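RESIDUES AND SHAPES:
===
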Amino acid sequence: MAENADTTILYFKVTDGVTASVRSMDEADFFRLVLPPDSGDNRHNIQEFYKDGKIKLIGKTYEGANAFNATSGVIMFDGECVSYYPTGKKMSITHYKHGFKDGLEYLFYPSGKVYCGIKHRVINQLGNTQVTNWECYDKDGNEICIAGNGKWIVYDKSYTTVNMEGQVTDGYMDGEWRGIVYFPDTIKFAYRYKKGKLVSSEGFDKNGNPYPFQNEFERATYKSGPLVFLEILRNRVKLPRDINGKKMLIDTMHVSFVVERDGKLSQFGVSEDVNSQLKEAVFSALEKSNEWIPTKIYGIPYRTKIILPLSEISGWNTKYKGWESYRREIWYKESIIKD
């Protein structure tokens, strides 16, 4: 694949939106060639290909020190970068300056027609960028937003479903933008902007009832945090004794329950086959622990099943010392219940 000895070949796989290097083509979703600079140019050439050999991306790296790490999924581009769909049609044309988007970026429908043009302008050395919506076209090729004024449509990743649409004024979202999502069920929502600044937002359940929100998704959690909940729950469990008079242990147990829309708990369960007295003691403690905040999607509360281990908190502190926020995210499992 590489005619030059100074060309590097790298393989990558994309999992849940994260690009990571792998060892071989068999494991990869695409491969990358890092080619030497052109004459009189200090920037390396980057070419990426799908597994079938079709072009995926063409660009150049930023020439500054430590500007790119070829073994990572992220490269600091400089100049024009063109990406392609697996069909060979253009996906985007983006201009970069020293690793940051700068200038007009064009995105294309899978059909090859232009979808939109977005303006990027780097405003400081930290790479902060001012972004404005400049051009937008419907699937028939009609320009519906001209020079930052008109209608704008936001699609899902496949461009098959309209997620949101509204008006643009001087390049910024303006007025009411309405949208719809289909998980965990059909949710309609509305954002209200004033020249790019969000004024208010609310979601609507299937009966049309409005729910103001700030975050599109908020996971179910105990009012003082999940670790506090675990500590309180363990303290509330009145451990029965076994036939030898020793207190029974709960460190190997996993408990499950449903957080209802009002924050109360229901449908208690344990994943292990445990003593009936111990199970009853755990369920009794759960009945006193109803101060949960339910899952909210676009402000609408949803029932959520939680599964968590009852092992001591100190064990988690030791394992994830210094990673408090990360630890709070991974220590229990949850699944939204669709009614």
Observations:
- Helices lie at 226-236, 276-287, 313-319, 324-330.
